[in-house]
Amino acid sequence: MRIKDPEYPAAVEAAMEILRKRARQGQTITHGELSAELAVQGFDSIPPHRGVMTYLLKDVCLHRNEDGRAPMLSAIVVNKASREPSDQFSSLARSLPFSRPATWSWWDEQQQVFAQHREE
Question: What is the mean pLDDT of residues 66-76?
């Protein structure tokens, strides 16, 4: 899948639903688990690392968050070995429109995601 594919917006929506469900449960999800859950829903061409997954996770964070102030939903997507978000996530958090401060940590962002979705 490529970001210009007509089904890409539906893949972003599917990813958001998967991540919201995990966030409501207070659980993280690995890139591989997200890729597998998307495959079950028919989006079987989204490998867990690099490529379209990177764009998908960025678009999940930007959805209804154009100013970047809301918690970044992809903070709960973690590396299987380290159980931490990827370096790409930290780079995204420090870029526009998110512009997280130097004191920012991915753990704080994760906690904000969990809190936001518990309240919904």
Answer: 95
Phi, psi of 77 (to 5 degrees): -90, 120
Q: Return d(Cα 55, Cα 97) in angstroms, integer.
A: 15
Indicate if the alpha-carbon torsion angle 16, 10, 52, 93 is positive or negative: negative
What are the structure tokens assigned to 104, written together?
């920012």
CA dihedral 84, 72, 20, 30 (to 10 degrees): -20
Q: pLDDT, tens digit, for every residue of 88-104?
A: 899 999 999 999 998 99
Q: Are 93 and 104 in contact (CB under 8 A)?
A: yes
Q: Give residues with Cβ within 8 angstroms of 34, minimum separation 6.
A: 15, 18, 19, 48, 53, 77
Is residue 30 within 8 A of residue 78, CB to CB? The reply is yes
pTM for the predicted model, two decimal places: 0.92
Tokens of 35: 């890729």
Contact 106, 73 (CB under 8 A): no
